[in-house]
Amino acid sequence: MRIAVGSTQLEGNLSLPEDATGVVLFAHGSGSSRHSPRNQYVAQALRYGGMGTLLIDLLTAAEEREDARTARLRFDIGLLADRVVGASEWLARNSATAHLPIAYFGASTGAAAALVAAAERPDDVRAVVSRGGRPDLAIPVLNRVKAPALLIVGGEDVPVIEMNREALKHLKVEKRLEIIPGATHLFEEPGTLEEVARLAREWFQEHLKPYTGR
């Protein structure tokens, strides 16, 4: 799908199982894209769990080429967060998804973008999951995030563990840090990505439940 965010057209893949309980927007980072096999694997697990998924490229093709040379745009958290917010607004307008609660799954610098977007849309985002993310890049706004946040890090990804521990201190909501033993930054070791998918699915299933008592 082509998703208009301001004057920019982003490419995305929207998948909705029957009777979806919500839709999870994937925010990629650090040179990744909607074609990332890791995020596609997690997205498939979420769909098996009854959730819709929107995997989008936060950068255009021209921006991707520039970023491949400079690695600059992947760290432009403000730009990436604006794109996540714009995609969320598109979901809220789209007839197939307007009735569904929204959650975010962010990887690498995309996790920071997801958290900044969640801070900007505190009443609209129901949960956030970070995989090998850089939530420390969103520290200035983490105290404004209202969505429950799960941070998943590989046990061998030592520098990123410390970055996530620091970010966790600044979150004032329901939060958890899960460290997967034996996993490196990309969760390429046997069974580690499956554990990421399981943890994310359970977190989203818990927090995308319909509100009661209204």
Describe it for me?
By secondary structure, the chain is of the alpha/beta class. The chain has one domain (2-207): Alpha/Beta hydrolase fold, catalytic domain (Rossmann fold, 3-Layer(aba) Sandwich), CATH 3.40.50. Helix content is 37%, strand content 22%. It contains six helices and eight strands, in the order βββαβααβαββαβα. The protein has helices spanning 37-48, 61-70, 77-93, 109-120, 158-170, 192-207; strands at 2-5, 8-15, 23-27, 52-56, 102-107, 125-131, 149-154, 175-180. It has an eight-stranded mixed sheet, with helices on both faces. The protein is globular, with a radius of gyration of 16 Å.
Quick structural summary:
This protein is α/β, with parallel strands linked by helices. It has a single domain, classed as Rossmann fold (3-Layer(aba) Sandwich), CATH 3.40.50.1820.
Q: List the uncertain runs.
A: none
What is the CATH topology assignment? Rossmann fold
Per CATH, the superfamily is: Alpha/Beta hydrolase fold, catalytic domain
Number of strands: 8
Rg estimate, integer Å: 16 Å
Instruction: Give the helix level as a range of percent.
Output: 25-40%
Shape: globular
Record the SSE blueprint:
Elements: E1 2-5, E2 8-15, E3 23-27, H1 37-48, E4 52-56, H2 61-70, H3 77-93, E5 102-107, H4 109-120, E6 125-131, E7 149-154, H5 158-170, E8 175-180, H6 192-207
Parallel strand pairs: 3-4, 3-5, 5-6, 6-7, 7-8
Antiparallel strand pairs: 1-2, 2-4
Helix pairs in contact: 1-6, 3-4
